[in-house]
Amino acid sequence: MPVKGVGTYDPQNVFAKILRGEIPCRKQFEDDWALAFHDIAPQAPIHVLVIPKGAYISWADFSAKASEAEIAGFVRAVGQVARDLGLEAPGYRLLANVGEDSGQEVPHLHVHLFGGRVMGPMLVQR
Ligand code: 5GP
Fold first, then answer.
1. Number of domains in the chain
2. CA-to-CA distance for 46 and 17, rounded, in angstroms?
3. Is 8 a domain residue?
4. Average pLDDT, the chain
5. Is the C-beta atom of 109 inside 6 A of ligand 1?
6. Is 6 close to ligand 1, i.e. is its CB under 6 Å away?
7. Residue 35 lies in domain
8. Position 106 confidence tier, pLDDT thresholds 50, 70, 90
9. Ligand 1, closest atom to CA 112?
């Protein structure tokens, strides 16, 4: 069920549980600001989720409330993950679902990083 990008943060969401170590993940990267792990249902040969460690639902929530250090840390983590996975040269796609229309399912801000094949059209045409 898609979530709204605003509201009260739900500490029982699956990514909050991963951050607390209550659910395992295949970790790709971690520092003080961000955690990156492989998606449980990959949609490309490489499909990694990068999440800030703070409790933020959406891009609006994060950009309004996060500190400069958290924002810089998160953005740097995305770049670091792409470099570590060897995706700079071939390229990759970043995608963030935010709110109901996007189909966001997990109400903790995350960026999908897809790589390992030619991605094709940016959006599925309807
Ligand atoms: P959204 O639709 O919210 O942008 O993306 C949520 C993503 O989280 C989906 O691609 C889904 O496969 C992934 N996901 C959901 N639950 C888990 C989990 O327990 N572990 C991992 N690694 N990924 C998950």
1. 1
2. 23
3. no
4. 95
5. no
6. no
7. 14-115
8. very high
9. 4
